Amino acid sequence: MEVTTTALAGVLIVQPKVFADARGFFLESFNQRQFDAAVGAPVSFVQDNHSRSAQGVLRGLHMQVGAHPQGKLVRVTSGRIFDVAVDVRAGSPTYRQWVGVELDDVAHRQLWIPPGLAHGFLVLSERADALTQRGASLKKYVDAWRPLFQTLDDGQKVRLRFAAAYLMHELRDAIANRLSQYADEDESDW
User: Where are the domains of the chain?
Assistant: First the structure.
């Protein structure tokens, strides 16, 4: 497994070793010991999700709010997506910045999105199957869906450009609630 850092602290591109021959390929998609060493801390995955989406579908941006955010390890088993992580951690030196990576069923790269970041992806192929391993405590959490146009605490709007080649049109989603409404939310209200 080869790990590459990105411009956002903690967001990692994970490249499993692929053994290919005339029969096809074999890869170890996850190894707990190697992954924990790459991330620098033990990660326990508690949920696996599988989504199938058509070309042009945008999933996200979404995140968990409150005391128990989840990290996510994303990979594609069929097709191709443009996967994005957005730093929405107040006080982070990369607050409101984002990184995007193509994931597909050829290169087999994966993206680790640590807790506290928003996540979403755009389907580039005719169809894509994305698998997401989610890690966190099994305590309550809330998915806070965020459209591409995001209103933040300071009233500044941030617009993520997934890449002009991938997006030929503007998303029509409404402006999301301010992140600040979640910042001080008491999770006992959930």
Answer: 2-189
pLDDT at 120 over 50: yes
pLDDT at 161 over 70: no
Task: Note whether 79 and 123 are within 8 A (CB).
Answer: yes
CA distance 60 to 116: 14
Q: How far apart are CA 61 and CA 115, in angstroms?
A: 14
For the domain 2-189, what is the CATH code?
A: 2.60.120.10
Distance CA 30, CA 47 (A): 14
Q: Which residue has the higher pLDDT, 2 or 162?
A: 2
In 3D space, the residue among 174, 178, 147, 186 whose CA is nearest the CA of residue 60 turns out to be 147
Q: Is the pLDDT of residue 4 over 90?
A: yes
Residue 73: C-alpha distances to residues 15, 180, 190 (Å): 12, 26, 25
